[in-house]
Amino acid sequence: MQTVKSVITWIVLGGSAATLAACTTTKPPAEKPAAAPAAPITAAAAANMGSNCFTCHGPEGRSPGSIPSLHGKTAESLVKTLQDFKSGARPSTVMARHAKGYSDAEIAAIAKYISSFK
Ligand code: HEC
Question: Is 46 in the pocket of ligand 1 (CB under 6 A)?
Fold first, then answer.
């Protein structure tokens, strides 16, 4: 009887150990850390990027020459135009190259900055 009991004990213990082991090995791989969210674009960063535009489009987007003014345009319309330049939907000489250099979030931030001049 003693032998049977110890065999049963062995099975029970072994069984639970095996279950534990199975639990450990079948555990799903550690969750991948979520892709780091893009750093939020600060107002200063938006101003830096937006100021590049003023080299051609004039201070605060008030163009002194033949390049169209950006002053007075809404953020929505600037985003739309820049996205169209980026995709090529709107033909351009230089703007596609500029627009392609910015992420969607950057374009939104630049548009907000440029449209902030009243
Ligand atoms: C090298 C000069 C230059 C720079 C820098 C530049 N642009 Fe332009 N932009 C142009 C020219 C030229 C056009 C006319 C379209 C074309 O030929 O590319 C234009 C057109 C535009 C238009 C369309 C305006 C309209 O009424 O038709 C928008 C909007 C615009 N640019 C936004 C920007 C923004 C925002 C930036 C900064 C990220 C920027 N541009 C930087 C030269 C420039």
Answer: no
